[in-house]
């Protein structure tokens, strides 16, 4: 701090007003003036949280009640799921949202399907190798989404049966659909 001051560059006549405005902005953002609190705008917070991965979003939900409420929004999970699945049409249309909502929402989709598939693919280390690995990643996630849909359909079929008393209820509880078992272990289909 005791060094010699460097000479200032020559100023243009219109640059003084721009420099003052920039200086004022820097003072505000660095805490000298009115600060912007991220908790003031829940929509902005939702945009930021929607760009996190699953583990980081779970950790962010532990920060405070506001962050937990925003992290529970289906739009945040939708953004995360669509980012991982890959290029889609402009956005998930109302038909896609309706199907996912009927299956339990984007949060459930990520928890039961995309999260385990991404963890398994990440452990395999094939994500960052080449374009072929990217195509394989996309196909694997598509398979996972298909299995998730089949599993939900099977659960609707198993749970939607008629009467039959308590014995039928116990039998329905014991019989679990096996579609999602493929997500637990890597399967070589080549």
UniProtKB/TrEMBL annotation:
InterPro entries: F-box-like_dom_sf, F-box_dom, SNE/GID2. Gene3D superfamilies: 1.20.1280.50. Residues 43-83 form the F-box domain. It comes from the Eukaryota. Pfam families: F-box-like. PANTHER family: F-BOX PROTEIN SNE. This is F-box domain-containing protein.
């Amino acid at each position: 701090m005791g060094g010699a001051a460097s000479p200032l560059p020559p100023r243009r006549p219109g640059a003084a007003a721009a420099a003052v405005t920039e200086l004022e902005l820097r003072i505000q953002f660095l805490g000298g003036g009115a600060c912007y609190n991220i908790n003031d705008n829940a929509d902005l917070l939702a945009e930021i949280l929607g760009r996190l991965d699953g583990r980081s979003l779970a950790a962010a939900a532990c920060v405070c009640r506001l962050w937990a409420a925003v992290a529970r929004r289906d739009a945040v999970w939708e953004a995360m799921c669509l980012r991982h699945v890959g290029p889609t049409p402009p956005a998930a249309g109302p038909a896609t949202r309706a199907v996912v909502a009927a299956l339990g929402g984007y949060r459930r989709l990520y928890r039961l399907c995309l999260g385990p598939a991404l963890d398994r693919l990440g452990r395999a280390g094939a994500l960052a190798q080449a374009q072929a690995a990217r195509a394989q990643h996309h196909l694997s996630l598509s398979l996972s989404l298909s299995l998730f849909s089949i599993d939900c359909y099977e659960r609707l079929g198993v749970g939607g049966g008629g009467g039959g008393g308590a014995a039928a209820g116990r039998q329905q509880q014991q019989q679990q659909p096996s579609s999602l078992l493929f997500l637990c272990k890597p399967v070589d289909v080549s």
